[in-house]
Amino acid sequence: MPSFEEILSKERLIINSDVLSPHYLPEKLLHRDKEIEFIMKVTAPAIKNQAINNLFIYGKTGTGKTACIRYVMKEFEKYKNNSIMTYVNCKIYNSRYKVMQKALKEIFPELEKLGFGIQFIYEKLLELLNSGKSMIMVLDEIDMVTDLDDLVYTITRANDESKSGHANIIGISNKLSFKERLDQRTKSSLCEVETVFYSYNAQQLKDIIKQRVEIGFKPNVVEESAINLAAAITANDNGDARYALTLILRAGQIAEQKGLTYVSDKEVEEARRFVDNEIIGEVVKSLPEHQKIVLLAVAQLTIEKSKQQRLTNYEDNCFLSGEVYEKYCKLCKSMNKQIRSARWYREYLHDLEMLGLITITETGKGMRGHSRLIRIGYIPERIIEMITWTMK
Prior knowledge:
alpha/beta; Rossmann fold; Helicase, Ruva Protein, domain 3; Arc Repressor Mutant, subunit A; 3 domains; 3-stranded antiparallel β-sheet; 12% strand
């Protein structure tokens, strides 16, 4: 029978898997000096109790947005001042009430209890500001907040009622268009600045992987070619540093399972298949409900091979945007879900394309005018299985 002693006694290639986690914050963030400096310049006046601009940070997944903010927060905390910078993950705290309660309950422990109305929480924010303190709310994945306009308006309105302190937002999102959900009155009160984090290139990814490998693996067990391959695969795919680190970690685990003393290109290639499945599953699981239904519509149409006449020169698994929307509406009715407008549907398509779950091709004139052809970006049977499981 196997035992823990036997397993633990085996020589490991990976000595610290935590440093290969996306949640690990290294002492030096590579290739993000300009971005960190920009955030620091925006937030620096708060150290002197001066007003700052609201800040919105955009960029695809794995471009270092959250890591840079966490680094700045760590540096900000070294200065003893009247400004508080607090972090809220809006995937978890996805409403105005939840965001404000989370941001303020460390200062006012009584907010940990349930039953307080939003007005009471707002009064607590004013109490904080009127005491001479300021608050910077870092709202990661801010676009996930369901009543976003109410949240932004409430925070900016607090500045009008405050006698001394300031309330500000640092919003992080991978959607450049999320502010379209805000009322014009709310937009005009933001006084924001913006910055975009661009994807890492192959050389930058190589540097990031090497930095973590030197800490996380035994010396000289990861071949240089394996690092190069992981960086190249990631750069060619999406430039997502988290993907690159997960890839090299899983390659190391595969090498250990095989009883190897090194990690080569072969293990990286094997890891790629595992990681792709895991990441797709996590992405689908985290999708908002109606994005799942749109994706389900594309997947089902792909399997059904739609009985309608397909236009020549295009593969059978391409579908016109109108076809997908019609299928989406049918699914909503069958699930007793309210059908969203065509405007929201177009935004869902854009988000799904950004995540690589579908591809969209714009056709030229002559195919019913300008049309959009939509194709599933992953195995449709697996997509249906994952969505069905997460919507139970």
